[in-house]
Amino acid sequence: MAGAIIPIPPGLMRNLYYPLRKAEYVTQAQMRTTNIKERIIERDPTFGIEQEAKEKAEDKDELVEVQTKLLSPKRATELISNILPPLLVFYRTPIANPEPEPTPSEHAGRSINAIGGGVSVKPGPEPVLQPQKIFGSVTTADIADSIKAMLGQDDSGARVVLAAEDISLTKGESNESSIESDRLKALGDFEIEIRVKGGDAVRRSVSVRAQD
Questions:
Q1: 44: which strand partners?
Q2: Residue 21's CB: how many other CB atoms inside 10 A?
Q3: What pLDDT score does 67 carry?
Q4: CA proximity to 108, closest of 121, 90, 99
Q5: What b/e sequence results for 99-123 when a residue is b if at least 16 CB atoms lie within 10 Å of its CB, and e otherwise?
Q6: Can you tell me the distance from the alpha carbon of 169 to that of 155, in angstroms, rounded to the nearest whole number?
Q7: According to the model, what pLDDT value does residue 193 have?
Q8: Are 25 and 18 in contact (CB under 8 A)?
Q9: What are phi and psi of 44, to 5 degrees?
Q10: Is 124 exposed, middle or buried (CB count within 10 Å of its CB: 0-12, 13-18, 19+)?
Q11: For position 68, what pLDDT does the model report?
Q12: In the chain, how many H helices and how many E strands?
């Protein structure tokens, strides 16, 4: 500790010397290591209180500023509905499906009837087309990132808070095997719902197409 140790009125120390870094308070540790026990030094009871109050006020102002930037659920829903196109397109590399082998029922369905030299063939049932699987699924996080990128091109849209949990995939009989929890695992067209917390659902279509 350098410099002289002198008593200073608390108000003068608090408002002038300490803010300008021209003086500093003597700590209890410094009191024990220096020969100043004979001095009568009055402790400033308000030391640190003003700074703490100032920091709390700044934190409160910052919180108010952040809250004013957040959009209401209704306004966020309107922006999503107005900015997003009807169809969101993603590209993935397809996985080649193996050639289906004829089933015993298909063999049994083929009958030959020779009448008067003619031959008739009874075809078997049509093979069921399997979904075209893809390398790398399209997740709700991928969809959320794409939506946020579109919203970010608008000043107001950039203020919309959107997460993967706000997007749900709609299952149907035709695509049930292509949807697993929060991801699309095959090529095709799908329906999604986008719902920010406290807002209404916005419905859009997602198309997963083959990467060239």
A1: none
A2: 7
A3: 45
A4: 121
A5: eeeeeeeeeeeeeeeeeeeeeeeee
A6: 28
A7: 97
A8: yes
A9: -85, 110
A10: middle
A11: 45
A12: 6, 9
Amino acid at 84: L
Q: What is the 3-state secondary structure (H, E, C) of 100-129?
A: CCCCHHHHHHCCEEEECCEEEECCCCCCCC
CB-CB contact of 134 with 187 (8 Å): yes
- Tokens standing for 97? 């499906």
Closest CA to 166 of 73, 91, 69: 73
CA-closest candidate to residue 141, choices 109, 166, 117: 166
User: pLDDT tens track of the chain, all 212 residues?
Assistant: 456 677 777 777 777 777 777 778 777 777 777 665 555 455 556 655 666 666 666 666 554 444 446 799 999 999 999 999 999 999 999 998 776 665 555 555 554 454 555 555 556 566 556 789 999 999 999 999 999 999 999 999 999 999 999 999 998 877 888 998 899 999 999 999 999 999 999 999 999 999 87
Tokens read off for 194: 């986008």
Residue 90's beta-bridge partner residues? 208
Q: How far apart are CA 117 and CA 188, in angstroms?
A: 47
Tokens of 43: 């402790």
In angstroms, the Cα distances linking 167 to 44, 115, 133, 185 are 57, 62, 22, 16
Residues 6+ apart with CB under 8 A from 190: 169, 170, 175, 178, 179, 184, 205, 206, 207, 208
Q: d(Cα 19, Cα 47) in Å, to the nearest integer?
A: 11
